[in-house]
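Handoff note, outgoing to incoming analyst
You'll be picking up this chain. Sequence as last confirmed:
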Amino acid sequence: MEVVGKSQGAPTIGKIKRVPLRDVWKHEALDFTTWLQNNLDVVNDALGTSLSSAEREQSAGDFSVDLVAEDEDGNRIVIENQLEKSNHDHLGKLLTYLVAIGATTGIWIVSAPRPEHVSTVVWLNEESPSASFYLAKIEAIKIEDSLPAPLLTLVVGPSEESKEVGETKKELAERDVIRRSFWTQMLEKVGKKTDLFDTVSPARGGWIAAGAGRSGLRYKCTVTEHGATAEFYIDRGPGSGPQNEAIFDQLAAFKEEIDGTFEEPPEWQRLDVSQACRVRKQVEVGGYRDEEKWPEVHDALIDSVVQLEKAFKPYIHKIKVPPVLVGVGGTSTPTSCEPIPTQWAAPPSHVRHREPSRSPLSRSPRP
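Most recent structure output, in case you need it:
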């Protein structure tokens, strides 16, 4: 007999050897299923369950279930087993049997769980509030020349965390449905006052936007649970922070004229810690969770975005977009873009958040 640790004073420990499953259970249904029926304690120890009263070949419509057991509350438990790798056929059987006999739990025992089936069982536990699923791996082992013994390992099972994840996913899916309905109803109304959103489709996200006639400039409507905003939004894409700020600064030179078109002036936000810049009007009537107020929210958003378009449209064509600055070896190289003006309009002091002496083109490029 081969042993480990023969040196003086060391404990004698045998080596575990894996045994082919078919050497232990020749036939899946006749041998393995029967063994499981008579050895539910092995399943209970591995999965943390309390199963009893297992019966074989119970009818499920035109099919027969491998094993049907009961938990301590008398709920039915389906056990589907196979001595091979997990496959779609047995997964389908497990689900079919579970529904057919009204079981609350499905246990799937396999020799080798495929990754896609592990993911499926995780998903089932997240998405099934009234059912729980276990996937377990069966092996046969022995120590040296001992009799073979079963080794059943839980791969994935239900948990409070998985149920919480499932509830979160449902809440997010519900939110997407509600927001799509919110935008659908708004887009049905907005065409009566402006054609800005004629080619925009309802979104499931928190915003929709329409182009303002220049690259990176758009009119944007956003909605949260209990609020909404209409914005003139400036973002020309990755690495465009200095460009966006330069455009904002040019428009800010006309702030007095633009603000004069509103009863209550909008918020000018250069957002120096972000890439984008914006000018926005807040709508405090309600949000997508306030369905009874949607007509008012829609009217306020539409009026605000129409006001923004009217206010900014005369000045958009006057904007001169600076080149993108690309740092190479400590130098800044302009790329081809629209002509660089000789003078830049500095923003008024009440909207400037950085040192007034620094031009957007004098800054180092953003990382």
